[in-house]
């Protein structure tokens, strides 16, 4: 087949996870002429229920596999000529990285390097090839009360998770410098929305409020995060993949900072309304617990580069996004019960027992 006329084969790793599932859905819907391959190991965080609505789409295929397995990755890359890779597969939860750092080294560092190695041949044969690495603002470490992370902020990771992501970013850049691999990296702030595993702050607290369980706020709750609706992140990824400049990095954020305790109170108010509970009922569930070791005080992204170069900005306000998120978790309690059964429950009990 003439390569020029063949459809674009795009590999999305981690497509059964939270952000990956939104990226896969967007690409399958928007690019009917591409073949979208979703490579995922289906760890506790990956769930094909997240993609039920598109599983029969003619331009979508699922491949179950582990990116830490170099033989598997090389074999897959020898069978399919990928024109581009959007790499999201990762261990993503900071608290888990504190209790099990090696899993983060394996997946986030070794897994990324396996994909980079396998990509080198594809990039030799195809000048349009792109390795797009999805990373986090946590690689920059912690801000004080003032200032923002921009693309030239020095890396200063504090958790095993962010150290593993920083390492994978460095490897991607190093493969660009050393072997000429065409790449782009984007570093995004905290995402929220449908399909997020209920170990992260927003879905954990929604789930706990529904079930009348304590809301474990770490430390004094004055830690600050910059929240972005996941579909806005997926749109940004689409733009960067198609229009971003190779060899560049882009910061993506919500211009939407909240202290954890304020966000928790807002969630409690919205949930009281939703559940028809008396105002103030859910706030009684707030429980201050032992702080996360190495807890970063504040993240905030200066997203002016992606805004100026690619015209991206968040389209969903926090009020709209939270409303849609809460509605989704209400309508998908079976999903919640399913993903929080089994091993996860055991983990949760060990990790988050309140003081
Ligand atoms: P997630 O934990 O919800 O999903 C990760 C996915 O990767 C899962 O489907 C899992 O099965 C898969 N996976 C894990 N190990 C694998 C392996 N060895 N081989 C193949 N697949 C494997 O993560 P997420 O929150 O959707 O994050 C996706 C990416 O975006 C990550 O790289 C993360 O670092 C980055 N990121 C996340 C956020 C956020 O707020 N969640 C913000 C910025 C960047
Ligand atoms: O900034 C981007 C990062 O955001 C991503 O790279 C990570 O993959 C993602 O998990 C997220 O990391 P955080 O550590 O910021 O997210 P988390 O939801 O775990 O915590 C948000 C804040 O809430 C943080 O300050 C810790 C606090 N927290 C979290 C939990 C789970 C609590 O106070 N109580 C909790 O139970």
Automatic annotation (TrEMBL):
Cofactor: NAD(+)
Cited Gene3D superfamilies: NAD(P)-binding Rossmann-like Domain (3.40.50.720), UDP-galactose 4-epimerase, domain 1 (3.90.25.10)
InterPro entries in the cross-refs: dTDP_Gluc_deHydtase, NAD(P)-bd_dom, NAD(P)-bd_dom_sf
EC number: 4.2.1.46
GO molecular function terms listed in the Swiss-Prot or TrEMBL record: dTDP-glucose 4,6-dehydratase activity
Pfam families: GDP_Man_Dehyd
Keyword terms: Lyase, NAD
All copies of domain NAD(P)-binding, residue ranges: 11-325
Catalyzed reactions per annotation: dTDP-alpha-D-glucose = dTDP-4-dehydro-6-deoxy-alpha-D-glucose + H2O
Alphabetized PANTHER family for the sequence: DTDP-D-GLUCOSE 4,6-DEHYDRATASE-RELATED
Family: Belongs to the NAD(P)-dependent epimerase/dehydratase family. dTDP-glucose dehydratase subfamily.
Name this protein carries in UniProt: dTDP-glucose 4,6-dehydratase
